[in-house]
Amino acid sequence: MEIGQKIKQLRILKGLTQEELADRAELSKGFISQVERDLTSPSIATLVDILQCLGTTVNEFFNDSPEEQIVFGKEDYFEKTDEVLRNTIQWVIPNAQKNMMEPILIRLEAGGASYEDDPHEGEEFGYVISGSICVALGNQTYKVKKGESFYFTANKKHRIWSKTGASVLWVSAPPNF
């Protein structure tokens, strides 16, 4: 394991020069330079001091767990089209069913396209990105326009539809899609 490169990355991430890190750790700039180039290895005590100055611990430093993905692009999306209901659903967070909530993007074609779901435990939230929709919750119907949002507990049969077409960001917690 090349600890020097990892120390250098942390130092740069913290916005420190080699000299600033050396001063904080009470070491010489030359020693920090040699450590970063893997020309020398610090003692355990010195490594602990360096890592403390960089705001981390030995355990965190040597943890090689893969970094959690935070940003997702179109290449990460999973898409499903329902020809009967004339909608397209994009799961915008892969494997979101393991999370506490699951956001999807629903595109409804013009002319009465819809999405419906049976009653279940949880909550539903939506934001209309474009167009307008109707939200049916039990026996009540609500109109939601571009820029507006909706929220409800999912203990009643619910359905959304659009006569003119719409895009809706929909979040379900817990995941139910």
Q: Classify the helix fraction into a percent range.
A: 10-25%
Distance between the termini: 42 Å
Q: What is the chains' assembly state?
A: single chain
Tally the helices: what do you get? 5
How many distinct beta strands? 9
Q: What structural class do helix, strand and pairing data support? A: alpha+beta
Mean pLDDT: 90
Order of helices and strands: HHHHHEEEEEEEEE
Rg estimate, integer Å: 26 Å
* Shape type: rod-shaped
Low-confidence segments, ≥5 residues, pLDDT <50? Answer: none
Provide the β-strand percentage band: 25-35%
Largest sheet: 9 strands, antiparallel
Concise synopsis of the structure shown:
This protein has 177 residues and is of the alpha+beta class.
What does this 3D model show about the protein?
The protein is an alpha+beta fold. The protein is 24% helix and 34% strand. The chain has helices at residues 3-13, 18-25, 29-36, 44-53, 58-62; strands at 78-82, 87-91, 102-108, 113-117, 123-137, 140-145, 149-153, 158-162, 166-173. The longest helix has 11 residues, at 3-13. It is rod-shaped. The protein starts with a helix and ends with a strand. The relative contact order is 0.14. The mean pLDDT is 90.
